[in-house]
Amino acid sequence: MAVRKNQAELSAPEKEKFVQAVLALKAEKRGNTNTYDQYVREHRDTAPTDPAIGELSPDYAHAGPAFFPWHREYLLRFEADLQRIAKDPNLGLPYWDWSVNQSQYSRWPFTADFMGGDGRDSDGKVMGGRFAYSAGRWTLNIRSSEEPEPYLRRRFGKDPDVTSLPTQDDVQAALRATPYDVDPWNDKSQSGFRNIAEGFIGGPPPPPQQPPPQQPQMHNRVHVWVGGSMGPMTSPNDPVFFLHHCFVDKLWADWQVLQPQLGGARDCSLYLPPHGARQGHNLNDSMRIWPDQNVNVQPAHLLVHHHQLGYRYDTDADMQFMETLDPGKRLWSWNKKYYLVYQSDGNLEFYSDTPNRPIWTSETKGQPVGFCTINEYGHLVIYGPNGQTIRAFGGDLGDGVINDNGRLVVQDDGKVVIYRPDGRAVWTKP
Prior knowledge:
- By secondary structure, this protein is α+β, with helices and mostly antiparallel strands.
- It is built from seven helices and 18 strands.
- Strand 9 (330-332) and strand 10 form a beta hairpin.
- The longest helix is centred in the first third of the chain and has 20 residues, at 67-86.
- It is globular and about 65 Å long.
């Protein structure tokens, strides 16, 4: 399984592997273009209109409920190409947590050995780093009318309406928003996680404060703040696009886990609407991932837990079927206040962030030490080194119902819970 890590935690070799894979996709010929530019074109072609390519149908990737599933599928395909060309099936996209890593002093990605820096004052041209235009290297071949030059441009914070990046408070406000989306299911929706996180509206202000001016927020704000090549629909020309959208996908993954539904493989309550939005944005609509191919990918297909899609984030607070908790490993809550740990003495223990005494223990200290996992029946099981069951937890252990979409969650409220696919909690401690 690919692990998508915070770029601030990447080692130098990990950064180099990612950069080399991106450069290799740019150099790999595919028809009359290259593999990397194919992704730029596909994103550009979701735009409703563009003078460079003429009239298109309404945007099926932005300003609507399919924003998150469309980009999730897009990232999955890009990640698969990176893995293929790097010959590493476990290579994961890194993400840029722009609510924390906002400057060189907080380990942001715009360094010479990774994404390169800001553009020069005169025209925004990026002059250094691996993606600077030099002797034809990193040429922007797929451009819109907003991007006439063949070189990468950035203008950090130069837009007078967007001089700062979103904050951790903004992220928390988005993660608290419910439901997923609301009528009219577009950029005019006045609430809902999707429109707040996409950035057409801000999070709900505390009363009696008045709503802030309608400036770009969250996802949209980052595009505008980076500026230059990140502004138009050809924004994947800037490789930081993928780090940005990887964090946006992480926000959706976190939101799905944090919601009270908690869901299952296809818990459609985590996506709205089933119908009533414009074409491409309803639950079972084709999202037309590749405009020139008849590929029927629906939002419903992307509602499976992201572990089932072949990747996990480095901060994930849940454990799925067949994932293991090995001796000494910890599974943290999203807010980093609680963790589940399988001790090297054979005891499974649940702690708060002040580890004086466990909140709960499996009372298996002294038993043969193996590993913990969620089995096919949705039970948390401690297995010994020879595969023998030491202890099992979770609901009716004798029901024999296959439940390989069950999952264990370490929650922010100080509980560790096993959920079934219908959202029913079958085991809770303490």
